[in-house]
Amino acid sequence: MDQLNNSVVSEFVLLGLSSTWETKVFLMLTFSLLYLGIILGNLFIVILVSADSQLHLPMYFLLANLSLNDVWVSSTTIPKMVSDLLKEYRVISFQGCMTQICFIHIMGGVEMVLLIAMAFDRYTAICKPLHYLSIMSPKICVSFVIIGWVTGVIHAMSQFSFVINLPFCGPNQVDSFYCDFPRIIKLACTDEAKFEFVVAANSGFMSMGTFFLLLLSYVFILVTVWKRSSGDLSKALVTLSAHITVVVLFFTPCMFLYVWPFPTSSVDKYLFIADFAITPALNPIIYTLRNKDIKIAIQRLCKRTCYGRFC
Predict the structure, then answer these.
(1) What is the pTM of this model?
(2) N or C: which end of the chain has fewer CB within 10 A?
């Protein structure tokens, strides 16, 4: 990276979220608990799906991969943010900043593809139930995951290849708790317009395209259910409301930052808390408390654990 980038700047100063000591302590405790919940909740889903043969179905395979991805997404930013909250001088090296950006966008690309795959899974289960297992075969499910990772890497590297060679020779303060393309590009000692266009065309188009594709799929599912059930949408709405909530929480910050580049305010850094902390923490709750199969699997796991200890 040092050979690729001839910048004078060797580190960036992260301004973080708050300046008052009391607020910093509150945020540190809050995000520490959230991160613990994210790790335990999402890893529990991964272990449960892997251990229970009754959950070896396409929907839960994709859910386990989404949970694992949420762990990685949160781990790219939350630990660093928590450790920085009580520091007076919050810095990240140039290499660390570029690495963080890459992982954020790789994981973001994976998340988008997995959400599309889960929407397609629900569409197939509801609209083509007789062909569900043949359409959502293990090969197709694995292909979705592979496509997600390939998409994430291409998405990240197509922007990273431009940013890594930018000259950074002056300001090095990032008004956020993490590194990302828009904030870093603004610090470059060059004409930023064309690089802003690259980010907007890539991340912006990808975010908006995926968001509207997901919304259209949910509308199509609801219309199909409405036609088949004589207007009774209550059950479908309950099921899809959780998915729609996750989609809105995940994509709103992305569209705010990437579709209309680049905001002059610092609102986006607060919005991205939803992507890095709130959504990954909500996913295990949404997909367990509202899912009958998961509840039954948890009961089976508790019984096996209990019997194993001679309860």
Answers:
(1) 0.87
(2) C
